[in-house]
Structures are given as structure tokens and as C-alpha cells.
Amino acid sequence: VQLVESGGGLVQPGGSLRLSCKASGGISLVYVMGWYRQVPDNGGRELVATLTTTDVIQYGDFVNGRFISSREGAKNTVNQEINNLEPSETGVYYCHFRNWQDYWGKGTQVTVSS
User: Does the pLDDT of residue 31 top 90, yes or no?
Assistant: First the structure.
């Protein structure tokens, strides 16, 4: 399975961005797909949100109404919109795919700064 991430970059505090991840190659009918992030203050990777193929969403503990997750099943794509971004959310955001194995994207840098 290959994962292609897009949508990271530089955004001002209070701004928004939309991350997308497309999976291809050996996609099973049932899988879980979503986003994790690694920000400096929190050490390792933490869950942002994952979605199953039946659209059940699991959110990370810090997630609130600023986060909107969606899935385009026909395109094997998950999207993560984050609004009102804060500088503390600067970090690397990783796409994750799991069927009977775990796959990770290379990560996309998100920098929240003025």
C-alpha cells in the first residue's frame, strides 16, 4: 500500500488547512485510515483521527470542534481539516493505513507561525 499525503505547509495562527491522504495498491475492502501528528511538546505520535470503511471515526483526546474528518471511499482518500490553528500544533502530520498490516506516509510538515 502506498500513501500520498498533501496539504501541509505554512499557515498563520488562527488559519485553516486541509490535509489529504490517498492510498493505492493492494487496498482491501476493510481498512482503517487516518492521521497522526508529532508535535515537539508531546513527544511521540498522537492520534488525530482515523476512519473505518464504515465511517466510524476515532478521535484523539485533544480533538475538538476545530477538527473535521472525512473519507472519500471511492478514492481511498481521507481528509483532515483543522481550523483556528495554534502555534503549538506545529509539527509533522502522518497518514496511517491499517488492514492486516500498518502503513505510514512520509509525513507532511505543518508550521503555524506569523
Answer: yes
